[in-house]
Amino acid sequence: MAPKAGSWSSAPSWRWRIAALLSLVLLGFGLRLYRLDSQSLWVDEATSAHLTTLSPGQIVLDRADNLHSPMYFLALAAWSTVAGRSEFSLRFFSVWTGLLLVPVIYRASQRLFRDRRTSLIAALLAAISPASVVYSQETRMYVILPVAYLLILTAVLGGEGPQTPREWLLLGLGESLCLYIHAFGLFVILAVNVLLLVTRLRRADGQTWRLWLASQALAALSYVPWLFVVWHWGSHVPDKLSRSNWQAKPMPLTGFVHQLWTFMNSGLVEIGKIDAMRHLLAATGILFGLGLALTILLGPRRRLLQVSAAALLVPLAGTYAVWYLRPLAHPRYVLFLLAPLLLIMARVTSVLARRPVTWAGGLVLLGLLLSSQAASLSFALLDKRFFRYDTRALSEAVAARSIPGEAALMPPGDYSLHYYDPAPAEPVNLPGQMGTEGGRLHLRELGPLLEGRPGAFVVSYVGLRSVDPRNYTPFILEHNGRLAERFSVDRMQVEHYLLEPPWVLPEPSAVTATCGPLQLTGVYSQTITQADDAVTIALRWQLLQPTEHDHKTVVQLWDDGHQIAASDNRLLNDLGRPTSLWERGEEALNTHVLPLPMGTPPLTYTLRLKVYGGGDTSWQNKELWLRLGHVQVSQAVGQTSDPYGSWSGTEWQQPLVSEVAPGLILEGYAMRPEALKPSDTMHVSLRWRAGSNQVADCAPSLLLAQDGEILEREAGRLFSRYPTAQWAEEELLIETRELFVPATLEPLDLLLEVDGRNVAVARLGVAKEALMWTLPDEAEPICARLNQVGSLIGYTWKTRSERPNSGLLTLYWRASSEAPAATSYTVFVHLFSPEGHLLAQHDGLPAGGERPTTTWVPNEVIADEHRLQLDADARAANLSVGMYDWQTGERLSAYDCAGNRWPDDAIPLTHLSLESSRGTKWASTSSPGNEDTPKGSFCRDQIRASVTEATVH
Q: What is the rounded distance in angstroms from the CA atom of residue 413 to the CA atom of residue 396?
């Protein structure tokens, strides 16, 4: 009999549903196809592309070595033989497998809920799901997981569930498929069997139980061959597992749920850093939680919704256990949870929209879901902040800089450059084992890879954990060559080394030096290097006794009391763990590279070593520093680049006169700070170049002058340590000298004095806007004058709740309109009890010593802070301030605004009522009961003296 018109299965309704479903499939297809090949293949995708070039047997062996099932990669390899290996072709395999989510979730929703509205909403959410779209554009297996989970859920929960032996057989094969797609498929099997026990097997007969056991045995036995392969070929698996991130702390449940909710609704982990998206996703999550609870309590077919929720929560619990043990596991590993989540979202939205009381909430929830997904898609597909690494541009940059024979070194297992081929450079992977045998294995394996090559590019990813935590790669490359260039592409850092034969593997010499719980047992240090190169050091350590501290080491290069270069590293063992996780007797080799700053003079320098990080870190001779030896630096001729970035950010200025003396060229100068103000210490860097092989014998002094008067002079150390007679033609030298900026706003002249004559370098201006010229609004005005210095025009008194027994007094001085004081005066602040007992005091130069009175510019305002410790037992106090000459102890004469001199030349500020239980209050701006206070000294018509409060908790 034909179905009735308008019924669930009527022909018009059926056609409409088919049309709607096809429209949603086309929508999902378009989104997944949009800009499919616009981004480069990133690390994991490049691995997938690399595997398509191998034979099936090689794929199996490779995946066994990397703890990944081979099924997806075998299927991708088969696909690539037909479709090709372009970015578009490889990703298209994920497009159509990910697109299956739309019709499969529609069918699953129909079988579970038998509701057209729920099914269409589920298909709509699946079509535009950012997580599904993003991973449908990635050449990895993750997007297949939710489809596989849905197929199994449909078989288990739809209709009467598996009944015949054939259906149970298909269930076992489906579970095996999930395991072979990804190891986290184990949680899918766990969830499915829990649901079977709850929904089907509680009242099952013996035959059903036997079929269930047979299906699970089939799933387990089908996976045994792969377990055998992993066991046989994965000999280094325990070592890999032991390298799990020891720094990561267990993730709290709330953090896990928040991360998973963000990822499942956006496909992006980092999108939570965008405030608008974080708020939108949070609002969606809260409303969804409320709607879910309401639907489970009141909605129709509640049991099926509860079962669907169990399909989400059971594997969620298993994955949380993994996250708790290893928090840095990526959420894409559990993308299968997207299937039940979309089903539940669709059901909740449909039920809420159907009921008269909750229809508005259902529409709002659907609107929020669609809005968050649309916004997330726009970020994922259009915002470059969320794009993959641009390894295509990296390949082009390396190719443009390379010559035949050079190597492009990539992290172990990273085939990004192999795919894009940066010829003439040859992509080479670094050795995978970075730490065994104290690092010797890694260092030995690099030799055959690089020996005879003219150079090497080393690629590292900014923000990702280093695969070489002890810096063996730069150490061995620096030792056998030098850094020529360092550049960035997208979020990737590239270092280009020029190599020089023969290839040498440095060997630490045996030493014995004890420092706390550590013993230094071997040292290698480069004794000869060039001024445009670096110094390499290798240190072998042994732990004598367990320690709770994570020790660090710093190696410094010194020149007669001045530090030239330094390298600061954490002590790590072969597994990349700090000393607190070492075992007694454990040895480890750590390396240091000390780049010499561009323009370093060719002299002999001293290497010294220090251990720090907690506990006793002095050497056996009780010294903090251990001398490792000397380094002889030779001349670097013709240096123009700064590969180590030692002067990065420095803006070199062209001097007014370049040729300071015959053959001596000042190429440029740089100043810090750029905006000068009085009392600044000005650091002037001078960039010298030998214009010929016979530079005039001279030692220029740096001068700061004004109107022909020399204000400051600095001779420097370069020319006395390295006379110009020793300079080679085109040799570059850079030095830095210090000059003190005097109290003036008038322009200054920067000069070089050479053999009695002055050579102009620059005309400098003092930044007037860097100084204060008016009293801040929050300050309490006062009128007091001090001879020779200026006047006190205001102050503030503040306390903080976290420091209840401490008060901060800020004085505001206005400098005299005349020339600055010839003497540097000290400010005193006294806190007296009403009886005249001194409760607290603070003496010091103005502004913490940064603005002595000799540097005050006429009429400027100087903020001068003084902190006082308050007596907890005191109930009242008087504040007074003044200045004195520290050499003689004589106070400066102090007067009020009417010309009356203050007793003891101390300016009274305020009377404080100290109440420990209620706080500190201003009581009055005069001192009650003091008959010696000049009449009218605090007249309210002369200064603002309103009563204010400052609380002390």
A: 21
CA distances from 839 to 139, 353, 391, 797 (A): 74, 73, 68, 16
Using the structure block, give the residue that is written with the tokens 């479709």.
83
- Amino acid identity for residue 202 in this structure: R
In this prediction, residue 290 has a pLDDT band, given cuts at 50, 70 and 90, of: very high
Provide φ and ψ at 212, rounded to 5°. -60, -45
Q: Which two tokens stand for residue 309?
A: 């929720």
Q: Are strands 949-950 and 894-896 parallel, antiparallel or unpaired?
A: unpaired
Q: Round the CA-based radius of gyration of the chain to a whole number and report it.
A: 38
Q: Which domains can be identified in the chain, with CATH numbers?
A: 16-230+251-384 (no CATH), 407-499 (no CATH), 509-634 (2.60.40.770), 659-767 (2.60.40.1930), 771-950 (2.70.50.60)
Residues 406/426, Cβ–Cβ less than 8 Å: yes
**How many alpha carbons lie under 13 Å from residue 680 in its C-beta half-sphere?**
20
Kindly tell me if the per-residue pLDDT of 840 is higher than 70: yes
Q: What is the mean pLDDT of residues 720-739?
A: 94
DSSP per-residue string spanning 852-920: -GGGPPTT-EEEEEEEEEPPTT--EEEEEEEEE-TTT-PBPPEEETTSPBPGGG-EEEEEEEEETTTEE
Virtual torsion, Cα 821, 822, 827, 828, nearest 10 deg: -120
Beta bridge partners of 653: 669
Using a 10 angstrom Cβ sphere, with 0-12 exposed, 13-18 middle and 19 or more buried, the burial of residue 604 is exposed
| Length reported for the chain | 953
Instruction: For residue range 408-445, list pLDDT tens digits in order.
Output: 999 888 999 999 999 999 999 988 654 444 455 567 78
Q: What's the mean per-residue pLDDT of the chain?
A: 85
What are phi and psi for residue 692, nearest 5 degrees?
-150, 175
- Evaluate whether 136 touches 338 at the Cβ level (below 8 Å): no
- Structure tokens given for 688: 């010298």
Distance CA 492, CA 477 (A): 19
Estimate the share of the chain in helix, then strand, then coil, as percent rounded to the nearest 5.
40, 25, 35
CA dist., res. 644 & res. 731, Å (int): 18
Q: Give the pLDDT confidence score for residue 771 in this predicted structure.
A: 86
pLDDT, greater one: 766 or 619: 619
Q: In this structure, is the dihedral angle defined by the CA atoms of residues 143, 148, 149 and 151, taken in order, positive or negative?
A: positive
Measured CA to CA, the distance from residue 882 to residue 909 in angstroms comes to 11
- The per-residue DSSP string of 770-816 comes to GSB-S--TTSEEEEEEETTTEEEEEEEEEEETTEEEEEEEEEEEEE-
How far apart CA 923 and CA 911 sit, in angstroms, is 6
Half-sphere exposure of 471 (CA within 13 A, CB side): 19
How are beta strands 518-525 and 528-530 bridged, if at all? unpaired
User: From CA 810, how far away is CA 792, in angstroms rounded?
Assistant: 11
**Helical ranges in 456-602 per DSSP H:** 472-479
Tell whether the model's pLDDT for residue 32 goes beyond 90.
yes
Strand positions, DSSP E, 478-551 = 481-489, 492-499, 509-515, 518-525, 528-530, 534-543
Predicted pLDDT at 678: 80
Q: Residue 428: beta bridge partners?
A: 409
Q: What percent of the chain has pLDDT over 70?
A: 89
DSSP assignment, residue 637?
A: B
Q: Can you give the pLDDT at residue 801?
A: 62
Contact 218, 173 (CB under 8 A): yes
pLDDT (tens digit per residue) in 460-506: 998 777 778 888 899 999 999 999 999 999 999 999 999 998 888 88
What Å distances lie between residue 938 and 795, 926, 934, CA to CA? 14, 7, 9
Residues 213, 216, 218: CA angle, nearest 5 degrees: 110
**pLDDT at 944 > cutoff 60:** no
Residue 873: band (very low, low, confident or very high) from pLDDT cuts 50, 70, 90: low
Q: CA 21, CA 225: separation in Å to the nearest integer?
A: 40
